[in-house]
Amino acid sequence: MNKKIKVNVVKNVLQANDLVAGRNRQVFKENKVFALNLISSPGSGKTTLLEKTIPALKPEHKSIVIVGDLQTTRDADRLSDQAQQAVQINTGMSCHLYANQIAQSLSDIDLKGADFVFIENVGNMVCPGEFDLGENAKVILLSVPEGDDKVAKYPTIFRVADLILLTKVDLLGALDFDLKRVKEDLSKLNAKATLIELSSKTGQGMDQWLDWLKAKRTEGIGRQARFATE
Amino acid sequence: MHELSIAMELVSQIVEAAEANRLPRVDEIELEAGILRLVVPEIMQTAFQEAARETIAAGAALILTEKKAKVRCNQCALVFEPHVDDFTCPKCRIADAKVLEGDQIILKSVSCNLSEGNGK
Questions:
Q1: pLDDT by residue (tens digit) across A60-88?
Q2: A176-207 residue pLDDT tens
Q3: Contact B108 A8 (CB under 8 A)
Q4: Per the CB < 8 Å rule, is B37 touching A156?
Q5: Which residue of chain B is at minimal alpha-carbon distance from A187?
Q6: CATH of domain A15-219
Q7: CATH classification at residue B19
Q8: Do the domain assignments include residue B12?
């Protein structure tokens, strides 16, 4: 006689990660820092952007960087001079950061006096979208050399983005890149997200990006303060 | 490629559920994937078998079902089924919608087949 034991679970598979992400968000809130999750494919210019952004935010705003890469401490090394603190996470063979890796890093980080936490995710347009880290905003970088078809090809990540930075726009004239196509694809997925055309090399769009950061931070901290009194 | 990341989280939940319910092993798993997660069934199967190796769920059958998406337009409140790459509201033509269903991956059940003389 065969007997089948069935256990009904009904649980979100990513619940364990989401719980830790919620705790990270609480830590950011308590410390009044604005945390950003920077997501893109490898080579889109995340580290270069941070090399330009962090000094430009000074002296009013101090930044902390958490960088995820499979191997090496190269990115953290590049950013350690400018940031208040730069922490490297080596993910080994994992293609994204987990919320608990951020939680572990936060135990080594002094958030006091910091205004921004930039989390540079592992270069990948797919898996980082599945794993909430507790950030306040998701920033997706799309570089011109990657091609104008990427928004439609990776709809999930662009749908949940708060900001899309089109990077390396200094190459627009040199490559066949249809900016209209990107905007059209984006308008079908996420009408609320802001798109900034940016070049870390020429400085185009940097002011807009810095203004966005400051405004979102003020908005975020304001909202947090309001929540605290509710 | 995100299937493997999902499979690893899935296996740890299966092991947890099996241990909590004292199942000697796991033979069948029901998983519901929201269509917005873009889970490819064939890849999910392979990823699951790989992630389950040397665990209580090794060799278990993964029954995968898909959940359609449902969203509510933030502008006009219309509830509609979007396409994965097009969230434009059919009424007000703006892509600004809150996802109600179809963006989660849910472990629904774990089962164990006990046959007499073989099981515990």
A1: 999 999 999 989 999 999 999 999 999 99
A2: 999 999 999 999 999 999 999 999 999 999 99
A3: yes
A4: yes
A5: B95
A6: 3.40.50.300
A7: 3.30.2320.50
A8: yes
